[in-house]
Amino acid sequence: MGVIERKGLVFVPEFSVIEQKGAIHVYNKGQFIEEIKFNFSGNYPELDQIEELVNQYCEQHQI
């Protein structure tokens, strides 16, 4: 899974298959802003799940 860019923000997903947990790190101009945590099942999180979390973040922060 790669980096997602939206309106100047960079979203970097990472995950642990063993723990079935993931996080999306949010950056603005290279500076860390916050971490969006999530759980998933299977071998890796679905791209749709990550996209939805990014969309929700943007909507909540009016980006």
Overview of the molecule:
- This protein has 63 residues and is an alpha+beta fold.
- The protein has one domain (4-60).
- Helix content is 22%, strand content 44%.
- It is built from one helix and four strands.
- It has one helix at residues 47-60, and strands at residues 4-6, 9-16, 21-28, 31-39.
- It has a four-stranded antiparallel sheet with strand order 1-2-3-4, covered by helices on one side.
- Strand 3 and strand 4 (31-39) form a beta hairpin.
- The longest helix is centred in the C-terminal third of the chain and has 14 residues, at 47-60.
- It is globular and about 30 Å long.
- It starts with a strand and ends with a helix.
Concise synopsis of the structure shown:
The chain is an alpha+beta fold.
Strand order of the largest sheet: 1-2-3-4
Biggest β-sheet: count, sense, barrel? 4 strands, antiparallel
Strand content: 35-45%
Number of domains: 1
Q: What is the helix tally?
A: 1
Low-confidence sequence ranges: none
Summarize the amount of helix as a percent range: 10-25%
The number of strands is 4
> What is the alpha-carbon Rg in Å?
11 Å
* Element-level helix/strand string: EEEEH
Shape: globular
Give the N-to-C terminal Cα separation.
Answer: 22 Å
Give the integer mean of the pLDDT values: 94
Secondary structure category? alpha+beta
